[in-house]
Amino acid sequence: MSxxxxxxxxxxxxxxxxxxxxGVAEERDERDRIDPAELQDEHExxxxxxxxxxxxxxxxxxxxxxxxxxxxxxxxxxxxxSYTLGKIGGFCHLYIGQEAVAVGTLSALRPDDYVLTxxxxxxxxxxxxxxPDEVMAELYGKIGGCSKGKGGSMxxxxxxxxxxxxxxxxxxxxxxxxxxxxxxxxxxxxxxxxVFFGEAAVNQGAFHESLNMAxxxxxxxxxxxxxxxxxxxxxxxxxxSISDVSQKAVAYGMAAEFVDGMxxxxxxxxxxxALERARKEYLPSLLEIRTYRFMGHSMSDPxxxxxxxxIERYQERDPIKVFGDNLREKGLLDDAGLKEIEGRVRAEVExxxxxxxxxxxxPPEELFTDIYANPIKK
Length: 378
Ligand SMILES: Cc1ncc(C[n+]2csc(CCOP(=O)(O)OP(=O)(O)O)c2C)c(N)n1
Ligand SMILES: [Mg+2]
Description:
This protein is 46% helix and 8% strand. The chain has 378 residues and is an alpha/beta fold. The protein has one domain (43-358): Rossmann fold. The longest helix has 26 residues, at 59-84.
């Protein structure tokens, strides 16, 4: 059995480290009391950790990661604007604040690995290489979209890039990914499958059945819980008896890590370790990546369930700003470099909006294509 490795975002007190049973509620309350001095120490500790990680990644990759995070942020700001203008209909869940998770994890992948995620999928699709034009056109419901305008924001899909959705049913992608990992092992490849889901999916049976099966059958699947601490308007602490998601792996003898989701390089390093387990030993892993969404659950969420102070506390650790500042400190980025990145991103996003605006609506015949069972074709 692989070693269970849990790296806390904040150093845990002894009581926080306990697993279950009496006293768990008090432990959660304890965790809520934030001492400004302790917070400052934590910022400094994280700062130093990211500086250390920077040394182990080449400059080109570091700047590409920053570019991708800025692209997701600006793309989504534009999506929010288009949604407000009525150009995007239906549900639209933004990823702003969580960019380090998609960019850090996916930067460690090979192009032949597979990825599945939930409805909060714009960032994953962009990093997997679906063009911003195709993602924006999909949000607009246009034929030029990666799902021909028939999936919308929640159902981005790009099989050529090995991006298998975009899933609207909470947790639905977890057993699917387990099956994909089974298939790659059956074929004898060393491909890995990464599946992303929110912490609210973890209370579902499908999550537990998948983890059990993956460990028992030794499947090369990396289960990534993007713990943004809320399922719609419900705080994790009100919905889960043990709120350390990484500890759920203990029940299945699976390796797990608790990762700081505001540090793109910590995320990348944890993913590399999980991928090595998947490729070399066919072993699954659970990564709990603790993050925070800066926006509402979806575009229609007024967000009354959390305080401004709480949001601001996390915004101080904005993963893009922190990473950019650290790259500057290491002499890898300056004002001109940042301006150049922002300029390229702006041009890509503007092009995407123009492309989506000009792309036609899907014609009615499209209703009968790309469906699993087609009763029309004999
Ligand atoms: C099976 C199922 N139950 C309920 C819903 C309604 N629903 C949509 S999103 C959501 C919350 C999910 O939260 P989480 O898994 O933490 O992901 P996040 O939105 O925070 O990324 C719920 C309950 C659904 N889509 N599917
Ligand atoms: Mg959540």
